[in-house]
Amino acid sequence: DTGVSQNPRHKITKRGQNVTFRCDPISEHNRLYWYRQTLGQGPEFLTYFQNEAQLEKSRLLSDRFSAERPKGSFSTLEIQRTEQGDSAMYLCASSSRNYYTDTQYFGPGTRLTVL
Amino acid sequence: AQSVTQLGSHVSVSEGALVLLRCNYSSSVPPYLFWYVQYPNQGLQLLLKYTTGATLVKGINGFEAEFKKSETSFHLTKPSAHMSDAAEYFCAVSSGGGADGLTFGKGTHLIIQP
User: Fold this and answer.
1) Three-state DSSP class for residue B29
2) If you measure CA to CA, which chain B residue comes closest to A97?
């Protein structure tokens, strides 16, 4: 069990550029979640996958945001035409299918700074 | 809809003193409740969770929390604070046992005074 990993850990970009983040969940975890955390706030749910299916999307996930999990393993989160308001920590979490013991395990996050 | 309120964005206690971090929730269905801790430059780590059954839940590092339905509360306590407890603490609620997205509070920064 190597934990949830996220890459890159830091990303600095200019407004208007596209960025993509990657999340590798714990092996055999079938659920994968994306959250956004801004300074001084708790994480806010963005979306989640069960295997390759995207089952829920928050209204926070504007049409500039897209997430994929093509083979039910790793996931990518892309932000198109970045805005300064997108600057935040993007967190990924994964959990297993067992309903009664579902615990979301979080990665270290990707910190995005939009200049 | 569900929400979490954490009273006090900063809590300061002396080393060895009782730690009490407050969390109140709102949920239209029986809630599942969680406390996570976040150390600087690290990811969130689960301290403890309440799903069903016993309302007093024990977690890691000596922390525990009690689910009180009548008060819609899930306060986190530790009898004796240690310097290593200094961190950000988040309370979260889920209506799906943690299988769906969690709703987090804004967090409480715990400061330990020597």
Assistant:
1) coil
2) B99
Q: Which of B93, B94, B102, B106 to mutate against chain A (most A CBs within 10 Å)?
A: B102
Q: What is the pLDDT of residue B46?
A: 93
The secondary element (H helix, E strand) that includes residue A113 is strand A110-114
Element (H, E) at A90: strand A88-95
Do A105 and A4 meet the contact criterion of CB atoms below 8 Å apart?
Answer: yes
Cβ-based contacts of A106 with chain B (< 8 Å): 36, 43-45
Which of B43, B92, B105 is closest, CB to CB, to A108? B43
Nearest-5° Cα angle at A79, A74 to A82: 155
B44–A contact, CB cutoff 8 A: yes
How far apart, in whole angstroms, are the C-alpha atoms of residue A12 and residue B39?
23
**pLDDT single digits (tens) B70-112:** 999 999 999 999 999 999 999 999 876 556 789 999 999 999 9
Find the angle CA(B72)-CA(B76)-CA(A109) to the nearest 5 degrees.
105
From first to last of the 115 residues of chain A, give the pLDDT tens digit.
Answer: 579 999 999 999 999 999 999 999 998 889 999 999 998 899 999 999 999 999 888 888 889 999 999 988 999 999 999 999 999 999 999 998 665 557 899 999 999 999 9
